[in-house]
Design brief:
The chain has 152 residues and is an alpha+beta fold. It has a single domain, classed as OB fold (Dihydrolipoamide Acetyltransferase, E2P) (Beta Barrel), CATH 2.40.50. The chain is built from four helices and six strands. Strand 5 and strand 6 form a beta hairpin.
């Protein structure tokens, strides 16, 4: 193959590749949502956490909750939705975070950045990425705020 042929083939690939790739991206989009519900741990597995009796998730912008949002959430009635929670490690207590996966291999108790907000039986306000493309629906946690130590 001549140098000219290689140059033409390379130029054609460079020009046409972005258009081909752009047409292939059919992945589902996920939205950031907030919801209120009850925290439940199932099956004794440290990584299997659920938000049950949850209200309908509402689309919201990224960032932390302000005082007004937290106060409004405290007045929310519980709902009928359930979501598996993922990305939970940082919202557990320090001991649970260290027992989660391989965290203890690279984190000490003094370094553990754990909020302790995710506790079974607690009512919480969560913000996260809603993943509904597969069952069960999941929320990949970004923020967790305890509203009550019980779920009534």
């Amino acid at each position: 193959m001549s140098n000219r042929t290689v140059l033409v083939l390379t130029a054609t690939m460079v020009v046409s590749w972005p258009a081909a790739v752009a047409g292939q991206d059919k992945s589902p989009q996920v939205e950031i949502v907030q919801t209120v519900g009850c925290v439940e741990q199932r099956g004794g597995d440290m990584s299997t956490w659920w938000l049950t009796r949850s209200v309908e998730p509402a689309v919201i912008s990224a960032g932390v909750f302000n005082e007004t949002e937290v106060e409004e959430a405290k007045g929310s009635e519980l709902g009928t939705h359930s979501f598996q929670l993922i990305g939970v490690a940082d919202f557990l207590d320090a001991e649970s975070l260290l027992a989660f996966g391989d965290r203890a291999q690279f984190t000490t108790r003094d370094q553990a950045n754990a909020t302790g907000e995710l506790v079974a039986g607690r009512t919480v306000l969560v913000k996260g990425l809603l993943i509904e493309a597969i069952e069960p629906a999941r929320i990949n946690l970004l923020v967790v705020v305890a509203l009550s130590d019980s779920c009534v």
